[in-house]
Amino acid sequence: MQYRSLGRTGVMISPIGLGSDNFGDATSAKDAENIINHSLDAGINLIDTGDVYCEGESERIIGRTIKDNGKRDQVIIATKVDHGRRRIGVSLDQFKPEYGPNDHGHSRLNIIRACEASLKRLNTDYIDIYQLHRHSPNIPIDETLRALDDLVTQGKVRYIGSSTHPSWAVMEAIMISDSKKFIRLSTEQPPYNLLDRRIENELIPLAQKYGIGLITWGPLAMGILAGRYTDLSKYPKTSRAARRGGFYAKRISKRGIEVGEKFIKIAAKIGIPAAQLALLWCKDQPGITAPLIGVRTKKHLETLLPVLEMTLDDDIRKDCDDLVPPGSFVADFHNTSYWNKARVLE
């Protein structure tokens, strides 16, 4: 396996990272522990989580597992501050009762408080990559970056990143950091798969030019590219669309299902599972550092691990481009982004 440079940091990470949104929810703590250890044994060294994943339980599971296996120095742990607690245009009385008016957004107050809480849940002295979970347009980026810079100076954070930010906001953060000598964004974590290729238009070129590592989520398009969804009116009981509904369900589109069916035939032609091809396509696209696999079971993980050693054939890449042209989309994986107005039309 060839490890990859994470932006311009000098850090080397595996070409696939482990996502943990299922941990503590669809995946039990014991199963999650097995998945983490099996991933590390296979050479994956990046584990991504977030403070809102299962109300912090995902972080707790990761923290306990890494403490027990004694591999903290071998693992790059990435977590995030704020997402589910903040909605643009939503009044504070619509937040969960236990959340106060300052328990959201990327203010200095919330960032520092959230970081301390994540450190406790992760049972660690430092976070390798601390990411801003969605964009906070109402909070000056200077305040946000200064708070993150202080956390790095204090040794509580090694590098900083963003997740599902507009390209202009990533560029703005780079410019402010350079002008004020703050810590610079090292990573951005956007959605990316064959069904939603919009980051190819601006974000990937920006990342390539300015040395931003792209750690992408949703490479299997929530399983659409693996044939998990066949009917818009009926979802598998264990799927996120069925369990969580909301914006998860809205990512399932008629056109996406149709493309998924054709994609499965391409995978069958070369003799590999469609899930492997979906991940391989994402892993080997220009500018991508590492896609995250949000597996629910150890069996799912074992299906995807061979991709670590695989390379995408140019003819297969062209077949995929014929299904969904570069820069376009047939399913909306940016549907939690207030700034991206384009939606799938059926």
The CATH architecture comes to Alpha-Beta Barrel
Q: What is the count of distinct domains?
A: 1
CATH superfamily: NADP-dependent oxidoreductase domain
What's the pLDDT, averaged over the residues? 93
Q: Could you please say which CATH topology applies here?
A: TIM Barrel
The count of β-strands is: 10
What is the beta-strand fraction? 5-15%
The percentage helix is 25-40%
What's the helix count?
12
Integer-rounded radius of gyration: 19 Å
Return the CATH class. Alpha Beta
Largest sheet: 8 strands, parallel, barrel
List the strand order in the largest sheet. 3-4-5-6-7-8-9-10
- Can you tell me the residue ranges where pLDDT is under 50 for at least 5 consecutive residues? 84-95
The helix/strand order is EEEHEHEHEHEHEHEHHHHEHH
Shape: globular
End-to-end distance, in Å? 41 Å
Determine the structural class based on helices, strands and strand pairing.
alpha/beta
What do these coordinates show?
The chain has a single domain (4-229, 255-323), classed as TIM Barrel, CATH 3.20.20.100. It contains twelve helices and ten strands. By secondary structure, it is of the alpha/beta class. Helix 1 crosses helix 2 and helix 2 (57-69) packs across helix 3. The radius of gyration is 19 Å and the shape is globular. It starts with a strand and ends in a 23-residue tail after the last helix.
